[in-house]
Design goal:
Shape of chain B: elongated
CATH architecture of the largest domain in chain A: Orthogonal Bundle
Strand content of chain B: under 5%
Largest interface: A-B, 42 and 30 residues
Distance between the termini of chain B: 117 Å
CATH class of the largest domain in chain A: Mainly Alpha
Number of strands of chain A: 0
Helix content of chain B: 55-70%
Radius of gyration of chain A: 19 Å
Order of helices and strands of chain A: HHHHHHHH
Helix content of chain A: over 70%
Largest sheet of chain B: none
Shape of chain A: globular
Number of helices of chain B: 3
CATH superfamily of the largest domain in chain A: RNA polymerase sigma factor, region 2, helix turn helix motif
Oligomer: heterodimer
Number of domains of chain A: 2
Structural class of chain A: mainly alpha
Order of helices and strands of chain B: HHH
Number of helices of chain A: 8
Strand content of chain A: under 5%
Largest sheet of chain A: none
Chain lengths: 194, 98
Amino acid sequence: MLPEELLQHIANGDPKALRELYEYFKTRVYNTCLSYLQDENDAEETVQDVFIEVFQSADGFKGKSLVSTWIYRISVNKCLDKLRYKNRQKRFALVYSIFNKDTGAIQYDKLVFDHPGVKMENRELAAILFNAIRQLPENQQTAFILKQVEGLSQKEIADIMNMNVKAVESLLSRGKETLRKLLGDYYDSTQRKE
Amino acid sequence: MNETGKNKYVEDILNSLDGMQRAEPGAGLYDKIEGRLSGKAATTIIPLRRVSFAAACVLLLIAVNIIFMSMQHTKKDNSMLEVASFYQLTNNNPLDNL
């Protein structure tokens, strides 16, 4: 069955159709979430949120975009929500740690993220890259992840982000520039330590 | 510090995702989604169509009530006028001029 038909069935409350749609998109959604959140547990939790949202909003899908675009859009929004929530928690933990030195340790941030899909020989460098991606502004982060990790075309990214292709092109180029700057600074700091 | 070395390092990092494989979510993930959905279904999930229909019914009921009440009000005014004219309690009552 095509994704559009599956959504129609989901809108009519068919749980089998949701399972089929999940099987169809689970890898794409999971990898997108993993790139944003850089933690397997958080990514799985967000995948759940995405498919629950798909189930609840299936009857609101008007068919103006591809189902994949719609699901990517939900995934990106859920990931950004989760990131904002985690950042709020981090800020709270930081403030808390100022007043309570014993229990306020910041435990929300993993410093090194080892993506399971990265080639063994690239893992160390990829961990540095993921750390830098985390520091990009939201829009640049989204464009970079969808392009470099998900391998989507600029047109697809533009549809997901509700922008024109030119804007996406500019976001990607600014994102790469920011990453070059961040990675260059990181290189300088490691040279100073040696 | 070697600028070429730095540029190469940065480019190597930027290219470190080349040939990356997609990761797979855990096998039991769909069961968790289903579990959350059935939990929610029992408590909160009401299809949007049903909610819209219920809201439309309530609005219709309120509208009918308002119309009915305004009709009653007009009818009441008319009957008051009838009583007034029967007892000649109008502004044109000749007794007022005495």
